[in-house]
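Data card: per-record layout.
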Amino acid sequence: MVTLGLDVGGGSVKYAWREADGSFTCGESVGYERPTAGALGEAVRGALRGAGLMGEVGKVGKVGVCVPGVMSGDGRRVASSVNMPGLAGVDVGAWASGLGLGVRDEDVVVRTDAWSAGVDYAAVRGVKGRLLALSLGTGVGAIVLDDGVALKVSPPGAGMSSGHLGQMDVSMAVGDDGEGVPVGADGGRGSLEAYVGAAALRARLSGDLRAGLARVGVDDPAVAALVRALRIAHAIYRPDVVALLGGVGLGIGGLAGEIRSKVSEGLTGVARPGWRLEVGVDAYHAARGVARLAGEGN
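The structure for this 298-residue chain is written out next.
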């Protein structure tokens, strides 16, 4: 069975077409900014058409979709999406089944981008033990996998989450009035997302984000915030492997060695000895991961 994974990101949709033999074809739509659900559909169709895949959609048996935001209790409708408000209230299954891909609502699997990306990274890299996968992009998400099995700490009906690390307070400067502490898109002062989210970085670094990230050093406030978050995460989750995924994760990947050194300085003794800090292979982990999850019925 062919499965199609769609990673709906803040700036584009990435897709992963998974053949029955497990091989992938990946690509990306044109860029957009705060699109409507209709515009997202056009972006998906345009990307598949450009790759010559629209004529093959009859082979698709399942579609997996990652969407940013807080999901409703049934995990099918976007309750709110700070970074993509045009998705608020959208029934993801109905949206995907209306793309002209020949699938029904019940053939659509909806998962978080962090969960999906972690699943694919673990599969591609053959990760054993506990993996903490951080998806750093427009927003910040995380998943903990124990030999591929997700750790869930969210309450019943609240979807799959190992904890909202993007909303963790990692304030770098605290005054009586909070001056100098950035505020995230959801209003969280000093959140990790307020430091390392793509929108915050783009505003601070100016110009092309990729070029800006290439200039960032280990003492940059965003990296310092990430170091603090990882130190806290070691006390909570005790991962064997930490993976930096997503566009921002890839952009600062060259600093992985220095980041690990900073995290390790005076790190709590409960952290696992020999833990590793790794970087994603490419930008398609979430799209491939949700295609895997859809095909496996997870």
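Known properties of this structure: The chain has two domains: 2-111, 127-279. Residues 2-111 form a domain with the Nucleotidyltransferase; domain 5 fold (CATH 3.30.420.40).

See the next section for split statistics.
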